[in-house]
C-alpha cells in the first residue's frame, strides 16, 4: 500500500462481533489519486459524519481502492449519485455493497495507515507506536475511535500552522474548537505542557477526545467539553485565548467570527481549516471584519488552512 486518504467518524466502537450488528461496506476502484480524493471529499461533505467511515488506498499499478463503511444501511442510490457527480457513471456502477462484522472494518480501514508527520508532530496508530522518532511529538489515535487521524489535509495543515505558531510564541490559553478526536488539542498540550480546552458539538466526539488525551498522557491537561459555538461558561472561564484552532467548515467558521474575536487575547493567533480553496477568501473576509489579519494560507490535498492574528 502507498499513501492514503481517510475520513473516519466516531461510530460507537464495538465490543465483540456477537453483540454488534454487521455494518454495510461499499467498495470500488478509481484510476487516479485526484479523483479518489475528490470522491472522499464529496461523500464526507454530503453524508452524515456520525455514520460514515471512508478510506482510499493506493493499490499496485496506480489504482486507488475506496472502501466505505456505514453504521446504518445507506441509501445506495444516493451514494451512487454522489460518485456519478464526481467520477462518472462507470465508477458509480462498479460500487459493490455488502456487509462485514463491525470489529473487522475498523481494522481494515486503518491498519495500513502510515504515520503522518507535520512539523514537530507525528500522528500514528498503536501499531506504529515504536516507529515515532525521538525528535517528534507522537500523537496516537486508536483506530476504533477515529474521526481525524492526521491523514486528512485539514488536520495536517492545522498541525503545520500550530508548529509555526509555537516557534514564535508560547500561548498561555489554548482552545480547540470542534475538536473531533482531539488531535490538535493533544498536540498543543504535549508541546506546551499547559491546559487546553477542547470543545465539540457532538457528545461522542467529546468522549473520544478525552479518551485519546488520556491515551497520550495529557488527560489532565486536555479539558474536553460538549458545547455549541461560544455559549458555554467554559469559554469565559478559560479565556481569553492566545491561540484558537478550529478545523470545522466554512459556514460555521464565518458565523463564529464575531464571537471568537470577543474571546481572543491581544495579538492572539487563530488557525482555521475545513475550507475548500474557493471558500477561503470569504472566511478571511469575515475574520478581517472581526479585527484579525491573515498571516499565512496553505493548501494540502485540496483543502485550505489559514493562520490569522488579532490586530
UniProtKB/TrEMBL annotation:
<keyword id="KW-0963">Cytoplasm</keyword>
<keyword id="KW-0808">Transferase</keyword>
<comment type="function">
    <text>Methylates ribosomal protein L11.</text>
</comment>
<dbReference type="GO" id="GO:0005840">
    <property type="term" value="C:ribosome"/>
</dbReference>
<keyword id="KW-0689">Ribosomal protein</keyword>
<dbReference type="InterPro" id="IPR050078">
    <property type="entry name" value="Ribosomal_L11_MeTrfase_PrmA"/>
</dbReference>
<dbReference type="GO" id="GO:0032259">
    <property type="term" value="P:methylation"/>
</dbReference>
<dbReference type="InterPro" id="IPR029063">
    <property type="entry name" value="SAM-dependent_MTases_sf"/>
</dbReference>
<keyword id="KW-0687">Ribonucleoprotein</keyword>
<dbReference type="GO" id="GO:0005737">
    <property type="term" value="C:cytoplasm"/>
</dbReference>
<dbReference type="Pfam" id="PF06325">
    <property type="entry name" value="PrmA"/>
</dbReference>
<feature type="binding site">
    <location>
        <position position="155"/>
    </location>
    <ligand>
        <name>S-adenosyl-L-methionine</name>
    </ligand>
</feature>
<dbReference type="GO" id="GO:0016279">
    <property type="term" value="F:protein-lysine N-methyltransferase activity"/>
</dbReference>
<keyword id="KW-0489">Methyltransferase</keyword>
<keyword id="KW-0949">S-adenosyl-L-methionine</keyword>
<comment type="similarity">
    <text>Belongs to the methyltransferase superfamily. PrmA family.</text>
</comment>
<feature type="region of interest" description="Disordered">
    <location>
        <begin position="1"/>
        <end position="23"/>
    </location>
</feature>
<feature type="binding site">
    <location>
        <position position="178"/>
    </location>
    <ligand>
        <name>S-adenosyl-L-methionine</name>
    </ligand>
</feature>
<protein>
    <recommendedName>
        <fullName>Ribosomal protein L11 methyltransferase</fullName>
        <ecNumber>2.1.1.-</ecNumber>
    </recommendedName>
</protein>
<feature type="binding site">
    <location>
        <position position="200"/>
    </location>
    <ligand>
        <name>S-adenosyl-L-methionine</name>
    </ligand>
</feature>
<dbReference type="InterPro" id="IPR004498">
    <property type="entry name" value="Ribosomal_PrmA_MeTrfase"/>
</dbReference>
<feature type="binding site">
    <location>
        <position position="247"/>
    </location>
    <ligand>
        <name>S-adenosyl-L-methionine</name>
    </ligand>
</feature>
